[in-house]
Specification:
Blueprint lengths: L1 H18 L2 E2 L20 H17 L5 E2 L1 E8 L21 E8 L5 E6 L6 E3 L33 E5 L5 H9 L4 E7 L5 H9 L3 E7 L8 H16 L4 E4 L16 H18 L4 E4 L13 E2 L2 E2 L1 H10 L8 E6 L22 H9 L6 E7 L22 H18 L2 E6 L25 H9 L2
Parallel strand pairs: 7-8, 7-16, 8-9, 9-10, 10-11, 14-15, 15-16
Antiparallel strand pairs: 1-2, 3-4, 4-5, 5-6, 12-13
Length: 458
C-alpha cells in the first residue's frame, strides 16, 4: 500500500511539473507580474494573498491549494474597492480606495479578481475581472485639482535656521551665535501666530511654520478648505514660509487606510493657492515625510508608506505644481554627511545625508529641497537613550556640531537646497522621545554646534 501511494504521488508530481501548476502553500509562489513574495507569516503581500485565497475558496467551494498562476499589484480604485462587485442586501460597503489587486487562475482555467486592503482585513471578490488600473494621473490630466496660482518664492541664496520652542533669551543667543537667519515653530491649525511673527521679525529672523491639524478630518474637503483659509491667514500676517502638514506617510499623522501621496495633493493644492493669493512671497513647502523602509517590499500598508513610495505617489499626482520646495527630514544619521557608507546598522538610503536628499528630490525634476528637520542625536550630558533610539548612543556633541556644519556646507554647495532647519535649538524633553538629545543648546548651556555653524556661515 505504501509503495502504491508513493507511485501515485510521484505521478501527480510529474504532472504538476509538466503543466506548470503553482502551489500556494509551503513554497514561494511565482507572480506573473513580478517575483512573488517569500511565503512567510510576516510578508504583507503573502498575508493579503492568503486572505484573498481563503475568501475565494469559501465563496466558490474550490480547493485553491494549487493554481495555474496568480499575480498582484498595488492598486488605486477611484470609485472604491467595492466598485467591481454588486453589493447584496445587508452587505457592508467600504470607503477604501487603495490596496492589493490579485488575479488568480484556477486549475480549470477560471480567472478571478480579488481585492484586499493593505492590512488584508477587507476582502472583496469581484463579479468579473476588471481592466488593469491606469497609471496615476499627472496634474496636467487631473481636472479635479485647481490650476496653481502663478508666482514663486524661490529666490535668494541658501539659508540656515533652527526649530525652537520660543524666542527665549538663551534661544536668541544661540541663534545669533550660529548666524542663523530663520526660526521654525510647529503650529496646530487654529492657533493665533500673529505675535510669533511680530516677535521673530522684530528680532531679525524669518519664520517658518509647520502646520498640522486633525488627522481624523484631513480627508474631508470642507476641513481642507478651512485649513487652506488658516494657512492663508498666516501668509497674510507675514509668515515667510509654510510647511503643509508633517510626516503624512505614517498613521501617526494621517488616517490609517488612507495613506497615499495622491490623497495629500488636494490639501496641498488648496493650501498653495490660498497662500499665494494672500502673499505671493510666502515660501510653500510640502510636508516632509518620515524617512522609513518599515513597510518593506510592499511600499505601503494601511499603517503607512515608505517615503520613496509616497514621494513617487505625490509627484505622479502633481504635487510639484503646488510647492516652492520639497520638504525633507533627516534625523537618523550616525556618520558624517560626507559619507555614503559605514553606518553600523545597514546601508539603507535614509541613513545617509546624500542618498536621503536624492531620494526626496528624484521624482520632482529640478525642485529644490527644504530640510525642515535635520539633526544629530547625542546623549552626552543626558544619560542613556531609550531603546528605540539606542542607535545614537555613540554620537558625541563634538560630532553633532561638526556634522551639522558639514551638512550646511554640502547643502549650500549642492545647489539643491533652499533652506536647512536644524532640529533643534532648545528642546528639553528627555524620555521616550529624546528631543533634548538633538538640541544644540546642551544641558550645560554650551552650544558647540553654534560655533561650528558660525564658522561656515560667515
Amino acid at each position: 500500500m505504501k509503495k502504491r501511494n508513493v507511485l501515485i504521488y510521484s505521478i501527480i508530481a510529474a504532472v504538476i511539473a509538466l503543466v506548470g501548476l503553482t502551489p500556494l502553500a509551503g513554497s514561494t509562489p511565482k507572480s506573473l507580474a513580478q517575483g512573488g513574495p517569500t511565503a512567510t507569516p510576516t510578508d504583507p503581500i503573502w498575508l493579503a494573498f492568503s486572505a484573498a485565497r481563503t475568501a475565494l475558496e469559501e465563496k466558490t467551494g474550490e480547493d485553491l491549494t494549487w493554481v495555474r498562476n496568480w499575480s498582484y499589484e498595488e492598486a488605486e480604485w477611484k470609485e472604491g474597492i467595492d466598485a467591481c462587485h454588486v453589493l447584496e442586501e445587508g452587505e457592508e460597503s467600504h470607503s477604501l480606495y487603495f490596496g492589493w489587486r490579485f488575479l488568480i487562475t484556477s486549475l480549470n482555467n477560471k480567472q478571478y479578481e480579488v481585492r484586499t486592503s493593505f492590512n488584508y482585513k477587507i476582502v472583496v471578490i469581484c463579479d468579473a475581472v476588471t481592466a488593469t488600473a491606469a497609471p496615476a494621473a499627472t496634474q496636467a490630466a487631473n481636472p479635479n485639482l485647481p490650476a496653481p496660482v502663478t508666482g514663486s518664492a524661490v529666490s535668494g541664496t541658501f539659508q540656515v535656521g533652527g526649530q525652537v520652542t520660543g524666542l527665549y533669551p538663551n534661544t536668541r543667543t544661540a541663534l545669533q551665535a550660529a548666524k542663523m537667519k530663520w526660526v521654525k515653530i510647529q503650529l496646530t491649525m487654529g492657533q493665533n501666530a500673529t505675535g510669533l511673527i511680530t516677535e521673530a521679525h522684530g528680532a531679525g529672523y524669518k519664520i517658518l511654520f509647520s502646520v498640522i491639524g486633525d488627522k481624523a478630518q484631513v480627508m474631508n474637503s470642507t476641513y481642507q478648505d478651512s485649513y487652506a483659509t488658516y494657512v492663508a491667514s498666516l501668509a497674510a500676517a507675514g509668515a515667510d514660509a509654510l510647511e503643509i502638514w508633517n510626516e503624512m506617510n505614517i498613521d501617526r499623522e494621517w488616517p490609517a487606510g488612507q495613506i497615499n501621496g495622491a490623497n495629500y495633493v488636494p490639501l496641498l493644492a488648496k493650501a498653495y493657492n490660498a497662500i499665494k493669493t494672500a502673499n505671493s512671497g510666502t515660501l510653500v513647502i510640502t510636508g516632509a515625510l518620515a524617512p522609513t523602509g518599515f513597510f518593506g517590499a510592499a511600499g505601503c500598508t494601511d499603517q503607512g508608506c515608505n517615503d520613496d513610495t509616497y514621494t513617487q505617489q505625490m509627484a505622479s499626482a502633481g504635487a510639484g505644481n503646488y510647492a516652492d520646495c520639497i520638504g525633507v527630514h533627516y534625523n537618523e544619521g550616525v556618520v558624517s554627511p560626507q559619507t555614503s557608507s559605514g553606518d553600523p546598522r545597514d546601508n539603507y538610503p535614509t541613513r545617509y545625508y546624500g542618498t536621503m536628499l536624492n531620494r526626496a528630490l528624484a521624482p520632482f525634476g529640478g525642485k529644490q529641497a527644504c530640510f525642515t528637520e535635520i539633526g544629530y542625536l547625542s546623549p552626552d550630558g543626558l544619560g542613556s537613550l531609550p531603546g528605540g533610539f539606542a542607535w545614537g548612543a555613540n554620537t558625541s556633541v563634538a560630532e553633532q556640531a561638526q556634522w551639522l556644519a558639514e551638512a550646511a556646507v554640502l547643502s549650500a554647495q549642492s545647489g539643491k537646497v533652499r533652506l536647512m532647519i536644524v532640529f533643534n535649538v532648545d528642546f528639553t524633553t528627555w524620555g521616550t522621545d529624546p528631543q533634548a538629545g538633538y538640541a544644540i543648546i546642551r544641558p550645560d548651556g554650551t552650544c558647540p554646534a553654534c560655533t561650528a555653524l558660525a564658522g561656515v556661515l560667515q
